[in-house]
Design brief:
heterodimer; A: alpha/beta; Rossmann fold; six-stranded mixed β-sheet; 9 helices; 10 strands; 26% strand; B: mainly alpha; two-stranded antiparallel sheet; 4 strands
């Protein structure tokens, strides 16, 4: 298997006059946790939206050795990329277990093992016992876990997490970090995580990339990146 | 999933029993029997429409047009091509399904209001088409008097209300069962997922184009079939059904019953059809009265009649639940 699970090549995405992502290129290695940080408006969520097919950009995106450019979101899910959203997205009128079922049923090719898949995802995130709670009635932490469980139920190879810890208490943040480490180490899932809190990102990630105004300004290990002059300027100067 | 998504089995079976036995009490009253038949027709039509706007949140405003296409397909093929009535009815459903899918293809990349605008366009185009080829369609007076469907010794026609009611009941139960099964299937899950969070659903592997076409196809087929049944029942069809009052009545039926709350639409259809018939002496004030009903429902029960159990449950618990709470208090 190739060393790189994802390669982004010269990606550009503009909204009219505004260039959200400018000529961005980077690689993500199989099995690593790759962090992405940067100020608001740096283009991080736009990058996720282009990778997962919600927006079309110019340039190329290679996943598992094949280009996924031009594919629609559901096709990219079937290729093995799952994501979560910064503002928790759920099917609020449905019970939690049905939310996970959508991922298990529609996200996996072939009908076998759907029930087990749902059970495994719910157990992994720790939501046992809350299957029949209507999603709208879950608290914020459980909503984020449910969204994650649904994404995991699609049996992805790459997981994109968009600012997963916003609004959580310190205990919940700690639980989340442990969960992500477990998903990465025990399940072997490659994770790309966008986060604001440098401390959390540095703890979680093998490598980090800093974006600013749609451009990559630094990429490397957490130690290298946090000492980089330009990064310090971007974070403390602005 | 069966109970959550739609249709409480006990309610459905109870309703079936009532619908099956009620006409026996009215067998000498052709007017009531025909109103019951009409209620069933509209019940199925608005339930199919509810699949689209209630469950999938695809704002198709073309359903009355689909109804009319089914009715005219049947009428035209029976009158001009001499097709037997039974096949004519089925053809009504099939042709409408094809039209529905074509409209769905047009609306594939559209969302929300834009789907409503495009589909409502059908309402505008159809009367023009009907009027343009009035040599075939009979224009404004429409087509009438074509041979009715005959099942053994039973003639399917409003002039034979008792047996015709049971024929319509049979067809309605079949179609409503199909709708019920769709709602509680993965297709229904996809509809609700796309409705509640379109982006999340797509990221989990739901193909939004496919399910849009499916909802258009299924609801158009059922609606067209009932349009054909309607035309057969009255042995005639004219373009009056395409006017605004029909559309508004259908909308009121769904809202009264509860959007996306099967079988609310059926209940709404019965209430409004009966109300509409019995308010006829009021002439045009009939619509004022119906409008007042709608306003009252929207103010006091915006989620429709099917939401009543949810609203009532807290009261019941408060009044009768205390005994249970006392029993659970542990003895120290």
């Amino acid at each position: 298997m190739a060393k790189n699970i994802l390669e982004v090549k010269s990606l550009n995405k503009s909204f009219g006059e505004l260039a959200a992502v400018k000529d961005l290129s980077f690689e993500v290695e199989r099995g690593e946790v790759f962090g992405i940080a940067g100020p608001n408006g740096a283009g991080k969520t736009t990058l996720f939206n282009v990778i997962t097919g919600f927006y079309q950009g110019s340039g190329d995106i290679i996943f598992g050795g094949r280009s996924i450019k031009g594919l629609r979101p559901h096709q990219i899910c079937h290729k093995g990329i799952a994501r979560t959203f910064q503002i928790p997205q759920l099917f609020l009128t449905l019970p939690m277990v049905e939310n996970v079922k959508v991922g298990a049923h529609f996200g996996v090719r072939g009908a076998r093992g759907e029930r087990e898949g749902i059970r495994e995802a719910i157990n992994l995130v720790g939501l046992q016992g809350k299957e029949n709670v209507i999603a709208a009635n879950l608290n914020l932490f459980d909503k984020k876990l449910a969204m994650l469980a649904a994404a995991l139920a699609t049996k992805p190879k790459l997981l994109l997490l968009d600012e997963p810890i916003g609004g959580l208490s310190p205990t919940e943040v700690r639980q989340t970090i442990t969960l992500f480490q477990k998903i990465n180490q025990e399940l072997g899932l490659t994770i790309i995580v966008i986060e604001h809190l440098m401390k959390v990102l540095a703890e979680l990630s093998h490598r980090l990339m800093i974006l600013h105004n749609g451009e990559k300004i630094c990429i490397g290990s957490p130690q290298e990146v946090t000492k980089d002059k330009r990064v310090i300027e971007v974070y403390l100067g602005g | 999933m069966v109970v959550k998504m739609g249709g409480k089995p006990a309610l459905l079976l109870g309703g079936l029993l009532v619908l099956g036995l009620l006409p026996i009490a009215f067998q000498d009253n052709p007017r009531i029997l025909n109103i019951l038949s009409l209620s069933l027709v509209w019940g199925v039509v608005v339930s199919a429409w509810d699949l689209s706007i209630g469950y999938a949140r695809v704002w198709s405003f073309g359903h009355i047009a689909f109804f009319t296409i089914g009715a005219y397909t049947t009428a035209l093929t029976i009158v001009h091509l001499g097709i037997p009535p039974g096949a004519g009815i089925l053809l009504g459903g099939v042709v409408t399904a094809i039209v529905g899918i074509l409209i769905g293809l047009l609306c594939l990349r559209l969302t929300g209001v834009y789907v409503a605008l495009v589909t409502f366009g059908l309402h505008i185009v159809l009367p023009i088409l009907i009027s343009w080829r009035r040599d075939y369609t009979g224009g404004d007076p429409g087509l009438a008097g074509f041979p009715p469907l005959q099942l053994g010794q039973y003639i399917f026609s409003s002039s034979a209300p008792f047996s015709s009611y049971y024929i319509i009941l049979g067809i309605s139960i079949l179609l409503l069962f199909i709708i019920y099964r769709v709602i509680n299937s993965p297709i229904g899950l996809a509809f609700v997922a796309l409705r509640d969070s379109d982006g999340f659903a797509r990221s989990l592997g739901v193909n939004e184009y496919r399910y849009k076409l499916i909802v258009f196809g299924i609801s158009a087929f059922i609606t067209g079939l009932m349009g054909a049944v309607y035309a057969s029942f009255y042995n005639g069809i004219n373009p009056r059904v395409l006017r605004i009052p029909t559309f508004l009545l259908a909308l009121i039926m769904i809202m009264l019953g509860g959007l996306g709350r099967f079988p609310g639409a059926v209940i709404g259809a019965f209430v409004i059809t009966f109300a509409s018939e019995f308010l006829r002496p009021l002439a045009h004030w009939r619509f004022v009265a119906l409008g007042a009903i709608v306003v009252a429902v929207m103010v006091f029960m915006p989620q429709g009649l099917m939401a009543i159990p949810e609203r009532v449950r807290p009261f019941i618990r408060r009044t009768f639940g205390r005994r249970h709470v006392e029993k659970e208090v542990p003895k120290v």
